[in-house]
Amino acid sequence: MNRRNATLAATAATLAGAAALADFRSPRHGTQVDVTQLAAEIEAGDDHISAIDLAERIMKGDGNIRVLDLRSEAEFGEFHIPGARLTSIAALAREQLPRDETIALYSEGGGHAAQAWVLLRLRGYRKVLVLREGIYEWMSRVLEPRLAKDATAAERREFERAALLSRYFGGVPRSGVDRSELHTGYWTDVAQARPDARSTRRRGC
Amino acid sequence: MIRPAKPYSDPYLAGIGLGLVLLAAYVWVGRGLGASGAFSSVVAAATSGSASPLGDWLVLELVGVAVGGYLSARLAGRTRAAIERGPRVSGYGRMMAAAGGGVLMGLGAKFARGCTSGQALSGGALLSAGSWIFIAACFATGYLLAPLARRLWR
Amino acid sequence: MTAPLTETGALGATGELVAAPMIGIAFGWCLERAGLGYAPKLAGQFYLSDLTVFKVMFSAILTAMLGAFWLDRMGLLTLSLVSMPETLVLPQALGGVLFGVGFLVAGLCPGTSCVAAASGRLDGAGVIGGMLGGVALFHAIFPWVQRFYESTALGSVTFAEMLNVSRGMGIVLVTVVALGGFAVAGRIERARL
User: Fold this and answer.
1) A96 touches chain C (CB under 8 A)
2) CA distances (Å), C32 to each of B15, B70, C26, C51, C113, in order?
3) Blockwise average pLDDT, block size 10, chain C, 193 residues
4) What stretch of H or E contains A19?
5) The sheet that has A65-69: what strands, in order across it?
6) Which residues of C touch A17 (CB under 8 A)?
7) What is the ipTM of this complex?
8) Which of A21, A75, B45, C49 shows the smallest number of beta carbons within 10 Å?
9) Least CB-CB distance to B118: which of A5, A202, A205?
10) Pairing of strands A85-86, A174-177
């Protein structure tokens, strides 16, 4: 073996050995996660997906999104978002999920899903989103969207988008409803036209 | 068979160069190289008109591979219209083998979600379990069945 | 985090597409430089007469693997954001076997077939045609193989995770295999002289 090859081999061996030493203390896999960054994402609301956006992606057959349900088996059996899979916080602590898929989490009201979000982010998964008000948000915004009698033009547009999705998922849109009967949630204060900022980028080979 | 005009590069240096290109891909676009995916994309576009952004990326990349290969060959005086083959097989036989082998590789790459570029190189460098399973299966098979293909190459 | 550039926003959608042929050109260049556009050379590996493929492939893997690990450690690359293929044990094992037979018979793989064709080699074009056919064939039989195709999925997992060792340890294993292989290759070649 000539000098050059010997040098290259020695370099590779050293770098590899150093890698093993550097990883000696780390029992877990996944890279260092910046907690400050996580906090920033939560504050900015980047951890959310609205039920409407989720419904749209499911309807369009987006193969890149994986919907996970964090409720009980009984609740799941009774009703779940089409295409969702039941899992648990404990399972998500160890389960291997594709890193380039978007993971959408939901629970009853959003609490468990939010905890699962933190867990998955700490494990290094990047594309994790939470349905902020859980199954309630799905049932009210997607299955039963309501339009007030005195709706504004913006509300009307939003309702139309929701109604389309609702019919696709077998829901019942209702218009001409009294304002007091509208479903309320975080979305009633937020401007509706904001599309989901995350773009899906598949990166296979 | 005519020997090539200029000698080939040292394989280790070429390999390091290739590794650096792969590393650049990780750093620039967060993905590895690929090849078979481009073929999938072409077939998908031809049969159902469906396009995928990933497929486009791979097609563009593969076009680049052809360009890069041409440039290198041209500068080294290695471009030649020919059917490269073993000494005991005819041009026709070689072409049949090329096409037949291609069919098998097309199938295999679909099942494996990649080929030697995407799985073996790119996935292998990332320690992906499936990539190493692919590498082992691919090369073990090739070596084991080589005696049966002697007539093609020896 | 400074990279991947497409994840930090330094490289947008257009930039990502522009990077594709640039990376491809460099890829194709390196392959041709090593002589991997010449089918008898690639097939020679299976007869132990020419071990270029092994040398190129594993030095590439070593370079990218070590490079990626250390860039990540130095905070210059976020490795968890680099897309890694999923593992599906049985389909990929079968895929490897099929691919291995095809590779042995064709003497070229998808990437090198493009290099060969671009250099004027008709056999390269033949392989390309065959591969398009193979992909089309796969689509035709898909309903029958779908269950198998989607079976034994483990997600994007490294073999290190599966063996429950650290990433660094996994790197050592690959390095040992590579360097050991290079030593063996050298011996085989000297024996032939």
Assistant:
1) yes
2) 11, 8, 10, 15, 11
3) 80 89 97 96 95 97 97 88 90 98 97 97 97 96 94 87 88 97 93 80
4) helix A3-22
5) A48-49, A128-131, A102-106, A65-69, A85-86
6) 172
7) 0.95
8) A21
9) A205
10) unpaired
> Which chains share 3+ C-beta pairs under 8 angstroms with C?
A, B
Query: Nearest Cα to C39, choosing from B120, B121, B87, B119?
Result: B87
Residue B48 C-alpha, separation from nearest chain C C-alpha, in angstroms: 11
Distance of CA C100 to the CA centre of its chain: 13
Q: What CA–CA distance (Å, rounded) separates B120 from B115?
A: 7
- Rounded-to-integer distance, Cα B31 and Cα B128, Å: 13
Among chain A residues, CA nearest to C81 = A126
Token digits for B128? 């992906």
In 3D, which of A132, A146, A147, A112 has the Cα closest to residue A185? A132
Tokens standing for residue A161: 């988008």
Chain A closest-CA separation from residue C190 CA (Å): 11
Q: pTM of the prediction?
A: 0.73
What's the token pair of residue A116? Answer: 């699962």
Chains in contact with B, where contact requires at least 3 CB pairs less than 8 Å apart: A, C
